[in-house]
Amino acid sequence: MEKYELVKELGYGNFGVAKLLRHKETKELVAMKYLERGIKIDENVAREIINHGSLRHRNIIGFKEVILTPTHLVIVMEYAAGGELFDRIKAAGRFSEDEARYFFQQIICGVAFCHSMQICHRDLKLENILLDGNPAGGPLIKICDFGYSKSSVLHSVPNSTVGTPGYMAPEVLSRRSYDGKIADVWSCGVSLYIMLVGAYPFEDPADPLNYKTMVSKIMGIQYKIPEHIHLSQECRDLLSRIFVANCAEVCHANQLKYVICDVEN
User: Where does the sequence pass through the membrane (predicted)?
Assistant: First the structure.
């Protein structure tokens, strides 16, 4: 740790604390996640290190190293200065279809790479999608937080209900084994809907905290596009193809990126 100097604390979570540090020689800024050694260092942490450490892609937050101190396990990662995509949407209310497409293309590219490496994320949400700042070509998406991830090569078939309720696919809520890749695609669809509409697709606007109603609407795939939101037919068709419960013919992420168009176009 002697080669880094503290800049500021970034925030707290169930895992512990995240801090921003600067490398004393290179001046590179890095984000460090501090986990107290002991019972918090569980199989989820092990999967996060193994799975995230194997991924190298411009739309995935860079994994750098793990440092052990007498009191903590520290995961060192790339720093995304632009913050969460969720906050950007919250400030804007919602995105235009063109702006949503720009970000969704990148999300799909990152998820497609995870899936090509046989890794499903299982907690894709706008709070786990960061922005790298505002370079000349526009902000780059950076997927983060692989604590719930699973590898089909190293780990068992997903069967536990993990993730964030509003983003969960019906099969994840059914408490049976499911395809983690298809569940990831569903979560991507929820993110796209939120970008376009500014609300969660399966949330009851009159009672947004009613979890039972939300689960019922997810299981019944009951969502609609508000009348004042004008979307192309292609975009509506894409959402309808994503929001299909545990359906084998649903496109995986590496196919969906071509449905929308190549990210470079």
Answer: none
Q: What are 5-40's pLDDT values in tens digits?
A: 999 998 887 677 899 999 999 999 999 999 988 877
Contacts of 9 (CB under 8 A, 6+ apart): 17, 18, 19, 20
> Does 142 carry a binding-site annotation?
no
CATH classification at residue 18: 3.30.200.20
pTM (predicted TM-score): 0.88
**Is 87 a domain residue?**
yes
Q: Which of 78, 108, 141 is the last residue of a domain?
A: 78
Same domain, yes or no: 198 and 97: yes
Q: Which of 98, 123, 207, 262 is an active site residue?
A: 123
In the chain, the number of structural domains is: 2
Let me know whether 44 and 132 are in one domain: no
Contacts of 244 (CB under 8 A, 6+ apart): 221, 250
Structural domain span for residue 9: 4-78
Residue 179 annotated in active site: no
